[in-house]
Specification:
Helix content is about 35%, strand content about 25%. It is an alpha/beta fold.
Amino acid sequence: MLINQNTIQLSEIFTSIEGEGTFVGTKTLFVRMAGCHLKCRWCDTSYALPMLSGNRYSVDYVKQLIAESLQPFTYKVNFTGGEPLVQYRAVIELAKFVRDRGLRTYLESSCYDSARFSKLIPYIDICKVEFKMSDSEVVDINHYEDLLQNEITCLRISVSARKISYIKVVVTKSTNSNEFADLVEKIFRQIDSSEISGFVIQPSSGLDEPTVDKLVRFYDIVCPHYEEVRIIPQSHKQIGAR
């Protein structure tokens, strides 16, 4: 399905408590875009994966929805999915609108396309770069290195633009520790630890959950490179938030 910058395939808009990452606990307006071709095996928003899910609206109408949905003391507006880069032109227009209202913009992305990312990042204040391990099964092994390179390039673009940038990696019981160590080495060959605001290891929830011992091993791999590494599960599920 072809989506242009004048329309948006939107899954949902709602206010809730941020349940992941370094901004966990903040009151957030979530703008969930429809459509994601990666389909992580542990995805918990599978209803937003099909491009035809949700509803198709004009960009102006979605701006109106955002304005009507904003509540007092909202900390940030989170563009999530699905995958926001699929509809990056429309997200740019929404991000401009949100910033004009004096609110922080937050991008939650797999960063699979650094060219699209580079066009969107000027309008984003906070960027979560999510690195996919191969056990996520988002791409076949022949294309995994290309995905990884795009993710690293997006991280470099974000820190070069002086955005608030942090890393998230979802791990499972099946995640290979050596592969994880190689990823960490690659990341910190490209950036300095002072350039990011966080490194979050997120255990999978409800599927192939890692043990505490394994999480500690992942922590120990990151810590020599970045002391402020954190293991943060999806807290919104624990409090019954969306």
